[in-house]
Amino acid sequence: MKASKRHLFIVTAFLVLTFGIVRGQEKITIVAAANLKIALDSINTVFKIQNPGINTQITYGASGKFFEQISNSAPFDLFFSADMDYPKKLEEKKLIGSKIKMYATGKLVIWSKKIDPNKSKINSLLSADIRKIAIGNPATAPYGEKAVESLKFYKIYDKVKSKLVFGDNITQATQFITTGNADIGITALSLVLTPNMKREGGKYYIIPQKSHTPLEQGCVILKNAKGKAGAVKFYNFISSKKAIAILKYYGYDTKA
């Protein structure tokens, strides 16, 4: 083999091994609720090892915004919502290609670097030291919607509503707290259990689930994925033992 050809072979092999360039990969576009970021990325890593011929691309954001995009013919293949309502609405619009699968139930927490919310629990939000409280936008983010439900359940919503600042999704709301743009916030347990959040050194208190309707999260294959075997494989993989173990590690409840 001549030197130039040998060099080309080595470079090509390096690209394949390093960047996973596989000829004939099936591209699967996934949109997912922001609370899933670390958990679903971890699940996707395992999935890719087992399915090198499938190129999964995941975008995270607010479930409500993805619902609007899908309703307007956005070319997504799979939708992982932070609730069951948005998938059901898509079903009514005849925009799904599978049954709605409840893959996990999330949990709300109060998180802060400024105070320890375990001391006063929900009443931590009433502290005189708290000027801004971050939550997800209740109009588009189910975790924000459930946060408002909890505040109303404990009859403190009217007392704190002037302090509320809204993130477009639960990840942005969490960033408001970590960057100091909010003193405290209501976020997802799955996010505070991530390595980056643990390094922040904040404290969290799990809000009792009796204070809000369950954060049951559903996923569906969308009509755009018709004929894509990779979409079906990923949809099924979310129920696998490995995926369930990862979801539980990040604080989700599952049926298994």
UniProtKB/TrEMBL annotation:
Domain of life according to the entry: Bacteria
An individual GO BP term: molybdate ion transport
UniProt keyword terms in alphabetical order: Metal-binding, Molybdenum, Signal
GO function terms (MF aspect): metal ion binding; molybdate ion binding; tungstate binding
Gene3D superfamilies hit by this protein: Periplasmic binding protein-like II
UniProt: molybdate binding residues: S63, I170
Coiled-coil intervals: none
InterPro entries tied to this protein: AvModA-like_subst-bd, ModA, ModA/WtpA
Record carries keyword Electron transport: no
Subunit comment: The complex is composed of two ATP-binding proteins (ModC), two transmembrane proteins (ModB) and a solute-binding protein (ModA).
PANTHER family recorded: MOLYBDATE-BINDING PERIPLASMIC PROTEIN, TUNGSTATE_MOLYBDATE_CHROMATE-BINDING PROTEIN MODA
Similarity comment: Belongs to the bacterial solute-binding protein ModA family.
Name this polypeptide is given: Molybdate ABC transporter substrate-binding protein
Organism field: Flavobacterium oncorhynchi
